[in-house]
From TrEMBL:
Its EC number is 3.2.1.4. This is cellulase. InterPro entries: 6-hairpin_glycosidase_sf, 6hp_glycosidase-like_sf, Glyco_hydro_9. GO terms for biological process: cellulose catabolic process. It is an enzyme of class 3 (hydrolase). The lineage of its organism: Eukaryota, Viridiplantae, Streptophyta, Embryophyta, Tracheophyta. The keyword Chloroplast does not apply.
Amino acid sequence: MQKVSLILHTTTKEGTKAGTLPKSNNISWRGKSGLQDGKDTNDKEGLVSVNRYDHARELIKWGTDYLLLTFDSSASEINQIHAKVGGSLKGSEKPEDMEYPPETVFAFARDSSKRYMWGSVWLFLATSNNTYLSLAMATDPSVPKNAKAFDKITDFNKLPAEILSMYHESTSLTMWGFIQLNHGYPNSLQYVVNASFMASLFADYMKAQGVPGWYCNHNYFSISVLKAFATSQMDYIMCKNPMNMSYIVGYGNKFPRHVHHRGASIPNDDKHYSCIEGWKWRDTPNRNPNNIVGAMVGGPNGFDQFYDLRNNNSYTEPTLAGNAGLVAALISLTSTSTIGSGFDTDHTIFNQTRQYRPQNLPPP
């Protein structure tokens, strides 16, 4: 696991970078992309023990620099950001070939967003085209009736309450012990790795606080149960599953070869492919010409079945949220063989945290 976590720190994040890539970038099939999205930072390669501390910091900076470009930093109040414009499944091209002029992005927003008028105003300012001004001031009956209510509370504000209403007191395991935290819906692995990380972290915290375990519904659980759970889920992901495969690209002899990733699935041949032209690479039965080593895919369904199909992103699409949890879980389980000293060897972090005392401590 330790070797895998080191690989994940470097290759996976580098395979998803945008901008002008530094010479130290290890992914030969990735080139510069998204240059019009904002000023590039020329990040360079750099965890202290493995000479990757500076590099890990730069990877974080790369993401935060992007976030800083999603809002107007000169505004007196920041109350919204703009990101993920467009539909990622509407086309397939290399990141290096992305060309989305403002008018194209607006055309997408015009039919799918209540905020299209903001786009109309800004496009009018940029192009002096009165058509956009007319749209901003229009009373088109096809426009949603609440489109102009900019102070309108949208359905998205109800998300936290909805999540709570959907919460289940118990969850299920597959026949092979794979926990179903998303209740059988796609992209299962990202939930599992983050749960494994939290279980391992909490075990270390409880150990540092001198708490050997706790009661839950009259059942006693030691902290070793948390570590065992996290380990079992990582083992499943890395090969101990009915498919006898690893769900991490590049790990083991059998792993996904048709990953749903534009940069990995389209050849690095210095040719320009449009959004539509890229579909032939998405739909080809051939293996990806490039392996995004260290990427964890979406994972199996609720019946332990996995289909290595590039055009079914539910199974084969890697995500940053999933890989972040994977790296954290692997590090927590491989930093040490002693429970309680994995993340915080000198307890400086846990000692600053409020002491945890379960209501029902186990008998001595």
